[in-house]
Amino acid sequence: MAEFEVGVAAANAKVTSIFIYPIKSCRGITLFQAPISTTGFRWDRQWLVVNSKGRAYTQRVEPKLALVEVELPKEAFSEGWEPNNNSYLVITAPGMDMLKIPLAIPSETADGVSVWEWCGSALDEGADASNWFSKYLGKPSRLVRFNEALEIRAVNPDYASGYKVMFSDGYPFLLLSQGSMDALNALLKEPIPVNRFRPNILVDGCEPFSEDLWTEIKISNLAFHGVKLCDRCKVPTINQETTVAGPEPTETLRKFRSDEFLFPNKKQQKKVYFGQNLICAESLAQGKGKTIKVGDPILVVKAVSSPADAPI
């Protein structure tokens, strides 16, 4: 990989939005600031809806999850905050009563929970949550929480050895630029919002697809490493307001963001790429001060010269 040191601000690039998704595949929460844990932003993909066999439900097969809204206490995003007996994850959805899940660690466990290649035990959020999601989805369901005390779900060591996630697809953070969104929307007949791509960090003030090239950036003095361009699944084709899937934006992305277009000399996998997967070096270390905020500038430390040099 041809990599070079930059050490300058990426034009006027800065963080413009931060998102977390406490329940995998459900609606996200927009934040002003987010503390970083060993698995990504705190609370991100900590919960998962599973079927009767413990297999993960995602929008790929249950698009109705897109309409499930979640809320956490405002103070939950302050560094070092711990829940008390009056702290809840609040869940709502069209046609459903409000569901309140205590943030205190549940006592019941569920074995055989699986997400992609990973299988392990999780914490079971109980009968009320099970009944709520079973009614909403129309099939037996349970809500489980990642069991940090007993389980580790490792990031692919070929890209980021020693790092881990909870129920994220594969990596702790996903970064996307507004420039990339604007470039895509300029080609679409009907522009789409950024929530189709479910990023954690949205930045603005840089050229479209600059994030493809970033192998190390600093945000708030924290070192983030771009470890793999994000290949996209079906979810971006699902309208997050109606749950209806269509051909876009994948059809348009294939014309200029496919591996055939970006990496003509590499093995073709018929994938499209949009966004950069990140790890945070400081997430593995003890200590305070690991929070990023909207408005933080982006300092590009290292980059590659073209997307063809980026890991995929």
From TrEMBL:
A Gene Ontology BP annotation from the UniProt entry: monocarboxylic acid metabolic process
Entry GO MF terms: catalytic activity; molybdenum ion binding; pyridoxal phosphate binding
Short name of any one Pfam family annotated for the protein: MOSC
Lineage of the species this protein comes from: Eukaryota, Viridiplantae, Streptophyta, Embryophyta, Tracheophyta
Protein name: Mitochondrial amidoxime reducing component 2-like
Record field: transmembrane: none
Domain MOSC: 147-301
